[in-house]
Design the sequence.
């Protein structure tokens, strides 16, 4: 992430908010959360975008 100019603190903050919303507001849990299932990419505006892969969602 550092090499691509992505702020790790921004990613950490977004991941926390993402999982909190998923669990507490939507009632879902990503059943296979590991680094291989989290894609982080830089948007054209320069912010970090998080994409969850292989959801394995459960309610």
Sequence:
């Amino acid at each position: 992430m550092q090499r691509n100019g992505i702020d790790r603190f921004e990613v950490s903050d977004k991941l926390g908010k993402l999982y909190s919303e998923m669990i507490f507001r939507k009632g879902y849990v990503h059943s296979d959360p590991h680094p291989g299932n989290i894609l982080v990419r830089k948007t054209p505006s320069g912010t970090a975008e998080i994409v969850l892969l292989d959801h394995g969602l459960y309610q």
Q: What stands out?
A: The beta strands are 29-30, 38-42, 48-52, 57-58. Residues 1 and 8 are 7 Å apart (CA to CA). The two ends are 32 Å apart (CA to CA). The chain has one helix and four strands.
